[in-house]
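Data card: per-record layout.
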Amino acid sequence: WKPNNPPRLFYRRTVALSNAPAPARRTHVLRKVVLNTLHVFFQDFTDKEVAVVVEESDATAEFDYESVQVALYHLIENAAKYTAENSTLDVSFPSREGARCILLDMVSLAMDDDEFGRIFDDGYSGEAAKRLKRNGEGVGLGIIEPILTLNDAALVVRRDVGTQRRREMNFASYQGNQFEIQFAHKESLKES
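The structure for this 192-residue chain is written out next.
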């Protein structure tokens, strides 16, 4: 089943988020939150022979669990769809300049300049994703931004990380890509 008008569906979700009450924030262990979402996609990664390596960590951040679970769901769903077969998805929890992070590092579909500039656009799917019939309604990354904003967090995307990771397979180009959710530390929020 596919909605007749995906952009309208996305608009309704965005409006609902903008009218949402302030999220109920608590401190959560990032690794546990990621593992709760990863298990949903276990079979998808197994079918593609993708090894998922999750770093041991007790790093925490303060956020609304339910809304961040939705953002992680969409991010990991994209990883399951676009990660190269027989590769590795590394999940780590670095700290960077006043932020606690969830970093997904993978070899996934390559993004050219035009695609990279549009990955957060409502209804957008890349050409390779369409060709491989892995595209959806283009809601995934677009819905993540407003959810993370509600939690004083942001998504940083780095493409073509490590040129030695580039590869061609199944009529598509793949490259090293990183998707990092950055949560501000409480101390950082007080300074702003």
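Known properties of this structure: The first strand starts at residue 26 and ends at 29. Residues 18 and 180 are 23 Å apart (CA to CA).

See the next section for split statistics.
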